[in-house]
Write a sequence for this structure.
């Protein structure tokens, strides 16, 4: 039980750590254009992302899938840039665009899970029975992710309902700012990719 609590804490601290802010940026750009009233849509988005990163986190941590760490570190900001661009060009929210968003959240979750796995594998060392640690770490990640989403939706609520900022203006501002940060990350990490 003590191990479970420790890995749970490591999970939520990892996703909420400002030093690894790429995951915070992704969750922000993924959910930041929604309202509190859209909580069902946000729940589906976050669940799709969770499902994706849970799969690859487990596969990689169990050494079933081997990854090129430098390539994954480059692809993570690519997912952020792509999501930001979709937010910027998307004019209306239709059922078709929602389905695309859910599918991309799942796919991008697969990439982010591989990024999380590097951290988890370094914690586990040579441990062979990692099921409970993997579960605790993943639940911790989800707890941290929920905290981030709640903060984002609260900020959106204040800006749109109290300060009366237009929703489209907020979407363009948020997505453009995150696009700029993530694009610089892409350029910096592109030079660091090495293929074996």
């Amino acid at each position: 039980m003590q191990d479970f609590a420790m890995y749970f804490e490591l999970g939520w601290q990892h996703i909420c750590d400002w030093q690894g802010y790429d995951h915070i940026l992704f969750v922000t750009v993924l959910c930041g254009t929604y309202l509190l009233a859209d909580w069902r849509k946000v729940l589906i988005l976050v669940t799709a992302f969770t499902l994706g990163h849970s799969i690859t986190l487990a596969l990689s941590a169990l050494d079933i899938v081997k990854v090129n760490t430098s390539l994954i570190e480059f692809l993570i900001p690519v997912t952020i840039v792509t999501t930001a661009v979709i937010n910027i060009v998307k004019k209306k929210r239709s059922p078709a665009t929602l389905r695309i968003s859910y599918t991309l959240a799942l796919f991008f979750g697969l990439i982010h899970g591989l990024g999380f796995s590097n951290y988890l594998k370094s914690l586990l060392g040579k441990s062979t029975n990692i099921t409970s640690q993997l579960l605790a770490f993943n639940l911790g990640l989800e707890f941290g992710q929920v905290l981030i989403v709640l903060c984002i939706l609260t900020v959106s609520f204040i800006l749109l309902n109290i300060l009366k900022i237009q929703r489209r203006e907020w979407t363009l501002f948020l997505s453009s700012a995150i696009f700029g940060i993530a694009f610089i990350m892409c350029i910096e990490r592109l030079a660091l990719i090495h293929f074996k």
Summary: Helices lie at 2-16, 21-31, 39-61, 69-89, 95-124, 131-162, 167-190.
